[in-house]
Amino acid sequence: MDHPRRLQVLQAIVEDYVHSREPVGSQALVERHRLGVSSATVRNDMGVLEDEGLIMAPHTSAGRIPTEKGYRAFVDRITSLKPLSAPERRAIRTLLEGAEDIDDVMERTVRLLSQLTHQVAVVQYPTVTVTTVRHVELVRMDEHQVLVVLIPTDGRVSQRVTRLPVAVSESDVLDARARVLALTTGRAVSEAVAAVTAAVLKVPQPERVVLAAVAEALQALGATSAEQRMVMAGTANLAQSTGDFARTIGPVLEALEEQVALLRLLSEMEQDERGIAVRIGAEDASDPLVETAVVATGYGPHDGAKLGVLGPTRMDYPSTMAAVRAVARYLSRVLQN
After folding, report:
1. Which function does this protein serve (predicted)?
2. How much is the pTM?
């Protein structure tokens, strides 16, 4: 549908309905928007939009509301995103740069994004498949135990105590530490594990025992880090939008709690040329998120993980898209430091 005025009418209906949650009539459109035509002409345009499935009349109301198809047409025609205000940008920078570790960064990110959009905010942890080893630390606990600490470039520290079959000295662990650092720093975790494993047979005992234990620990830590994890905030915002769901919000809350469906959805969403992915509704009526919209974008190296918001389809898409993109850019910057 490429009729300029009808697109303008659709945009006006979306904007008014998002703001008021009330069906929009032709007279209200003429009064609130500079459409340059009479209410009769607007009614005709609304009739065409309804025939095309872009708007609908709820119950017996004289007004109209957007359909999922209408929201989709509106979103697809957003050509530019309004930048956040200076205070908003300053708040993002101050909050994220004050984080202590990766967990703190993730928690602050979702709280901030939820406050900016008044929706449920979600963020995937960056996975180790798109990060490299920044540092590996070995700490001798006693003659039969060594603590292995993995610090990848995403800042997410993980550690594991491994037991050794033979006694080792402090100097044995220090020798192994120097070798492990040389073999792992700057490499992907899988590559680092392979390098340490290959070195096991090339060194004498008891360093060989330490290296074998380190390889096993790194493999376990890498597998744990590669598990998809996410953090969310703002689920209480859904309670303020119960009127936007024809059915109960129970299935939505259950899906958020289980996380599996949302993680799968985020991984499948593809960004458009604006660097944003928007899903409105769902083709499968049994999908627990069928009455929701999700706005997401990638962050970090190669956009390997996603952050975004989930809410009802009656969403302020331009502002939400701008907030999601801005927070993602700041998050990427913080993780690179």
Report:
1. Negative regulator of class I heat shock genes (grpE-dnaK-dnaJ and groELS operons). Prevents heat-shock induction of these operons.
2. 0.71
